[in-house]
Specification:
Elements: E1 6-9, H1 13-24, E2 33-36
Parallel strand pairs: 1-2
């Protein structure tokens, strides 16, 4: 099991925007944050 600092629930517009700004703030993907979604593809409505 891995530890992460932030979990973003949903890969819709708000979730992807959150991930973008987390990355810009210095968080590293998978170690600092992870985006989870129920669909296979990101984007949502």
């Amino acid at each position: 099991m891995r530890a992460t600092d932030v979990v973003v629930i949903g890969a819709g517009q708000a979730g992807l925007s959150s991930a973008y700004f987390l990355r810009r703030a210095g968080f590293e993907p998978e170690d600092g944050y992870v985006v989870l979604d129920g669909d296979r593809a990101p984007g949502g409505a």
